Amino acid sequence: MQLAVNIVVLSSIYALIACGYVLIYRVSRVLNLAHGELMMLGAYLLLTTAWLFSGHPAIALSAAIGLSLVAGALVYIFLMRRMTGEMVLAAILTTVALGILIRGFVVLVWSAQQQYPAQVLAVSNPSLALPGGARISQWSAVLVATTLIVYAGLFSFLRFGRWGMRTRAAGQNALLAAQRGINLHVVYALAWSLSTLTGALAGILIALDSGITGGMPVIGLKAFPAALVGGLDSLAGALVGSLIVAAAEVLLIYYVDPLLSDVVPFLVLIAMLVMRPWGLFGTREELDRV
Amino acid sequence: MLRRFLLGAVAVTACVLPAAAQDYIVGVTGALTGPPSSTYAPAVDAMRIYIDRVNASGGVNGHKIKLLVEDDGAQPSKAAANTKKLITQDNVILMVNASLSSTYAPVISETKNAGVPLLFASGVCPQSVYPPADPLQFCTTGYASHFDSQATLDFIKARAKTPVKIGFSAMAIPVSRGEMDYANDLSKKLGMTPVDLEVIPPPTADYTPFATKLKDAGPTWVYSWAPWVTQVRTLEALRKLGWQDDFIAWGHLEAEAELARLKDAKFFVVNSNSLFQEQLPIQKEIEDAAKQAGSKYPAQTMTEGWIGGMAIEAALKAAGSSADRAKLRAAMENLKIDTKGLRGGPIEWTKDNHFRTQLYYRVYGWDGSKIARVQDWKNYPVK
After folding, report:
1. Which of A108, B31, B170, B347 is the most buried (most CB within 10 A)?
2. Residues in B touching A117 (Cβ below 8 Å)
3. Predicted TM-score (pTM) of this structure
4. Is B305:B44 a contact under the CB 8 Å cutoff?
5. In whole angstroms, what is the distance from residue B179 CA to residue B189 CA?
6. pLDDT at B21 over 60
7. In contact, B60 and B320? CB cutoff 8 Å
8. How far is CA B380 from the centre of its chain?
9. Predicted complex ipTM
10. Closest CA to B60 of B273, B260, B314, B307
11. How close does chain A come to B142, measured CA to CA in Å?
12. Whole-angstrom Cα distance, residue A109 to residue A107?
C-alpha cells in the first residue's frame, strides 16, 4: 500500500510540473527549458511572502500564487514576445538563458542555503495514516489534491472557457486565429502565466513539504520525460506519462536498485521515442524536429 | 590634449599595476550554485569575510590577499575550466577547492600540472592528504572519510542498549557511496547487523520511496554521511513514514539550525567543529564579522570557511614576503593552525600528513529544550 501511495505522490509532482511544459508547447510549439527554474522561483516567492506575512499562511500562499502568475506574464511580455516570428530553436535557447538567469538571481537574492517556508509560516506537516498501514505527509496529500484540481480546472478551461477555446485555436493555427480577431499576445501571455503557475504550485508544495534547495530545477527537468511520454501537446498525456514514469521509478527503487531512479524517466522516454515518438496521446503531425 | 591624457593614463596604469601584482593571489573554485551549494556557498563567503578582515588589518607580510572566487556549480567540467583560468590567467599561488568531491579529479590534475598547492576547505578531505600525503594537496575540512564513520559507529556502539541493526543512506556521489560501503563493512566488525544501504541520486523530488525501502529493512539506527540535503531529507521521510528510531548524520554547516528546527531527540550529529551554542569568543567574532559584512548566511554556517581563511593566512605568513607556489607548498608542509576552540585541537600539517595529526569528534543532539552535547571531544590519532 505504501508503494501505491509513493507512486501517487511522485506522479502528482511530475504531473503538476509536466502540464506547464504542455501548456506552452501546445500554444506556441516552444519547449520551455526554464520551467524547472520558474518552479523554483515560485517556491522562493513563497519564502518571501512567508517572511512578509509570517502569521498568515493563507495570505502568503495567495500572494505567492498571484506573483507566480504575474512572473509568467512578465516572462512573456519582456522576453518571449521578442521571439515571435523567430525560429522555434531561438525561442528554446532563450528559455535556456532564462533558466541560467533565474538560477543566478535566486542565489543573489535568497542565497544558496536550504530554506523552509513552512517553518517561517509556522505550519506543521504531520504524517497522516492511510488504510493498509500506509502514511502520507499533509503537504504531499495537498499536492495530490492540487494536481487533481489543476487538471480538472485546465480541462474545463480549455474545453469550455472562451479564452480556453481561443488558446486551443491559437495552438492549432496561429495565423488563422489572429485573422479571426484573437489577440495572440494575450493568449500566449495567458499560457505562460498558467504554465508558470502550475510549476510554481509544484515548487511551493514541495517547499512546504521538505524545503527549498538550489537543486529544484533538476526536479523540473525530471518531469520533462513524463510530458514527452504522454505527448507534448496533450494534458491527458502528461497525466498518464507522469503515472508511468513515477510507477517505474518507485518500483525499481524498491525492487531493483535505488540508483536507477535517476535514469528511469529517461529510459522510459527513450523506449517511448523508439516506439511512438509523438507520445502516448500526442498528435503525430504536431511533432516538430528541433 | 587627448594624447597627453592617454599618456598620463598609461603612466598611471604602469605605476598601479606593479603594486597590484604584489598581492598574494589565491583562487577558489566553489559550488556557489547547484544542488549541494548550501554546504559550500556559506564557507566561501566566510573565507571571503575572513580574508577581507586580514586585508583591512594590513594583510600578511605587508601584502594584501586577493581572493578570486569562481562558481563551478558542483560540476567537474566547470571546476576544471575555473582552475585552468585561475592558474594560467590569474597566476594564483594557491588554489582552494570548496566544492563537491566529483570536482576534485580535474582540479587536482590542473594544479599538479602547474605545481600549484591545492587546499580543500569545506569539501571532504580526499585520501591523498592522509599520510603519505600528496606533496601538493592539503585539507582543513572537518569531515573526512573512514575516520568519521569510525567515530560515528563507536558512538552508536557505546550508546545502543540493544543489538544494533543499522541502515545507511548515501548520496549517489563516489565519496558518499564509498564511505557508506566502508561503514557497512566496519559495522559488521563492530558486531552490528547492516540491513540496508540506500544510495539516493541528487536531487530527488520525493525521498519517501527510498525511505520506505530503508524502513522496511527494520533498522534500529540509520547512519547517513552525505551532503546535508540527503541526510536530513532521508530522516524526515523516515519520520513521515512513522519510523521512530535513532538517526545519526554528519554535522555539516547546516546542522545547528536544523537541530533546532527538527527538535528531534533521536537525531544526532557527529561533528568536528564546535557548534555556536558553545558561545566561544571566536564564534562571537565570526558572528560580528558576518553581521558587519552583511552576509546572507548565518554565522553558524561559517566555521569551515573561517578555518579555511585561517589556514590561508597562516600558510602565507609562513611562506614569507616573497611567497611563490614552491615556497608556499614548502611552508604548508610544516604548519600548525590554532583554531581557537572551533575544533578540538589545532590543525597540524607535516611533510607526510596534510590532513591533521589528531582528529577530534563531538556528538550533539536535542535534549528536549535546546541543542546539547551528547558526547564531548573524543580524539583519534591519524597515522
Report:
1. B31
2. none
3. 0.85
4. yes
5. 15
6. no
7. no
8. 19
9. 0.88
10. B314
11. 19
12. 6
